[in-house]
Amino acid sequence: MTDAEKHKLEQRILKRFHKALSAYSLIEDNDKVLVALSGGKDSLCLLELLARRMRIQRPLFKVEAIHIRMENIHYETDTAYLQNFCSGLGVPLHIVTTRFDAYAGTKKPACFLCSWYRRKEIFNKAQELGCNKIALGHHLDDIVQTALMNVFSQGHFSTMPARLTMRKMPLTIIRPLCLETEADIQALAEIRQYEKQLKTCPYEKASSRADIKLMLAEAEKINPDAKYSIMNALDAEGKLVE
Ligand SMILES: Nc1ncnc2c1ncn2[C@@H]1O[C@H](COP(=O)(O)OP(=O)(O)OP(=O)(O)O)[C@@H](O)[C@H]1O
Fold this sequence. Notes:
Number of strands: 6
Number of helices: 8
Structural class: alpha/beta
CATH architecture: 3-Layer(aba) Sandwich
Helix content: 40-55%
Bound molecules: adenosine-5'-triphosphate
């Protein structure tokens, strides 16, 4: 990629990030945002963008990061790398270790339990740290794929919103990458040389998300803007703010 192409990519990512912040009122003065950092390209990109934005005068907000280690899942996350990454951005990192029992009297799949216990730790830590917002690294492709999966399997038009105010906790979930494409984030990850984390989860298998991705690629042959069209429909129906 030439320097001019890199510059163009960075400008597009920044523009979409700022558009998401203002269109869905994601950040306000005095917010304290806890970024959920998995170590994957999406949340690394999210943390970089929020940490840089934090240094600008308005709005005045603080950023911290959390990484959850699941003791019983052998994710080889390089925590020293995450620590360095956060230090370089001037962001405190909290590493929390937890575990779940995949066989304990429940028929819920391991992936559901893992994600449920991870969220629980993130919510608890956010409240302990006095954070009012939690930022997740989902991007436009994730949001559009989820919408299609919900239409096909759940019978309703809904998705992961850009901003979700929790009813039972004083917390708001935000997704500042909601207008970024996965391809752009992937390209940025290559430019920045984000370290790839080794995932060796024993429960991970081909998901229905992979099938939806293929289907969406087919739809893009008919209309290259198909995913933006689905995103516009979600926006028009008020599905991106709850
Ligand atoms: N172990 C973790 N610790 C903290 N946050 C996490 C962890 N795993 C996932 N998350 C948060 O949940 C989001 C979605 O998780 P998912 O596993 O679907 O990641 P992904 O689409 O592969 O994104 P990423 O590239 O950030 O890993 C992540 O972007 C991150 O914000």
